[in-house]
Request: fold
Amino acid sequence: MYFLKENKMTSITLKDRISTDWKAAMKAGDRPRKEALSLLLAAIKQKLVDERVELDDTGVIAVIEKMLKQRKDSITQYEAARRQDLADAEKYEVDVLSTYMPQAMDAAQIESIIIASIQAVSAAAPSDMGKVIAHIKPQVAGRADMGEVSRLVKAKLGALSGA
Reply:
């Protein structure tokens, strides 16, 4: 018996792509990649269990961002402790996780978003930084380092107030 499926254009979610890549790494015997992706899938699943919601691509990107930050902190600590073997393992995981992040924004794009956000929320002093960051974050999520964005916003607001 044959069944006809509706001819629909379906887009693969980021979570599905990660699962597919995990299976491919497992079949290929690429243990380090499989382990890195296993950690990512476990973190995604933990987020699903904790929040009891299905994660969209934005939610998955937030999980990846958190994992990247953790890995970068670990690299710094391992290098300070002269444990290059552990630092190298973390760097490999950063490389694997980074492949699932959207393309990074360039400095000019970030600058224009900051200026537009300052104008949009009528910010005039460093005390308005929280409002500006809240306006910027959804626009740059996963595409810019929020620590750097915060530094740039702080500098812009400081220049506006004459500080």
